[in-house]
UniProtKB/TrEMBL annotation:
Catalytic residues in the record: 242 (proton acceptor)
Cofactor requirement: Mg(2+)
Lineage: Bacteria, Bacillati, Actinomycetota, Actinomycetes, Jiangellales
Pfam families, per database record: PfkB
Catalytic reaction(s) noted: D-ribose + ATP = D-ribose 5-phosphate + ADP + H(+)
The name this protein goes by in its record: Ribokinase
Activation/inhibition comment: Activated by a monovalent cation that binds near, but not in, the active site. The most likely occupant of the site in vivo is potassium. Ion binding induces a conformational change that may alter substrate affinity.
Compartment list: Cytoplasm
Cited NCBIfam families: D_ribokin_bact (TIGR02152)
Pathway note: Carbohydrate metabolism; D-ribose degradation; D-ribose 5-phosphate from beta-D-ribopyranose: step 2/2
Amino acid sequence: MIAILGSANMDLVVTVERAPGRGETVTGRTFVTVPGGKGANQALAAARAGGQVAFLGAVGGDEFGRGITDLLTGAGIDVSGLTVSDQPTGTAHITVDASGDNSIVVVPGANGTVTALTDAHRAGIDAADLLLLQLELPLGLVVEAARYARSRGVRVVLTPAPAVPLPVELLDAVDVLVPNEHEAALLAGVDDPVAAARNLAGRGGDVVVTLGSQGALWLHDGGEWPVPAFPVQAVDTTAAGDTFVGVLAVGLAEGVEWAEALRRAAAAAALSVQRPGASSSMPHRAEIDAFLAK
Ligand code: ADP
């Protein structure tokens, strides 16, 4: 069982020729709403890859919250630790211009109300082999959850995104740290992502630094193993990292070898980048198996 304590957002995505300047109004081209948030993304990726998943977090009692909850339950995810807050569901207001550059406003909403562990959260963590955390919920809660999981012998996997400096007590409670290159650099205070990852691995625990189309590097117990990316034509890399982590967690929860769990994670991420969207692009277990069998 994999417990994921994290954010659920509705992404409101507008495409425009060019983003408006201050005080300006422009006409958009397209508008879509896409369920997102790193927590919900990782939960969906893990569930599609065949994991037994419990999602812990909060949405609002609104249309967006119902849409996200339906998506999660439809994927077979246990939502008994998902509360309905009096705040609106978290939203990300995303403007993408013709050159593909984006600007984003995130309103945490219900996510911001998850400030302390509840009995339902503890029950979800107690039942889990692994707890997946990211940094889109209040930091104090993330620290509390990591320390609680550690005290119960539940392995903690942290995606340190969005990147912020982390308290040592959080890093000390993490078993597996999965930063991308920017997050690794910020956390270690070193520009080169591999040097940064070595630095982070020096505190003990596993580190997997993801390097986009360059793959990833797994650092364990003084050793380093590259995780090659599969050569594919990427059309949208949104949530590649969340897909990677969700699928890695499934392998680790099933007790498969790290190398194999990482290979499956890379395959799932390679499948996801070939399709547009975040949640819509995450592959099912059979697709991952078929891709690896080719
Ligand atoms: P994030 O989305 O968190 O920034 P990355 O961009 O590092 O994460 O991607 C995570 C993983 O997804 C990589 O380690 C790699 O396995 C896979 N991936 C990302 N981009 C590509 C790509 N263009 N082609 C193939 N695999 C990719």
